[in-house]
C-alpha cells in the first residue's frame, strides 16, 4: 500500500462501506454485488503501491 497515514485509509474505507451499505437497500443482490466489486477495485487501485 502507499505510504499514507493509517487514518486516511480507515476514513476512506468507512466512507466506501457506508455508501455501499446504503445502496444495499436500493438494488437487487446481483447489481449490489457488481457495485461492491467495482467500488473495491477502484478503491484498491487508489491505495496500492505502484
TrEMBL record:
Domain of life where this protein originates: Bacteria
Name this protein carries in UniProt: TetR family transcriptional regulator
Amino acid at each position: 500500500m502507499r505510504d499514507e497515514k493509517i487514518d486516511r485509509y480507515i476514513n476512506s474505507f468507512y466512507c466506501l462501506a457506508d455508501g455501499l451499505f446504503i445502496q444495499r437497500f436500493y438494488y437487487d443482490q446481483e447489481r449490489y454485488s457488481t457495485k461492491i466489486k467495482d467500488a473495491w477495485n477502484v478503491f484498491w487501485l487508489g491505495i496500492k503501491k505502484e
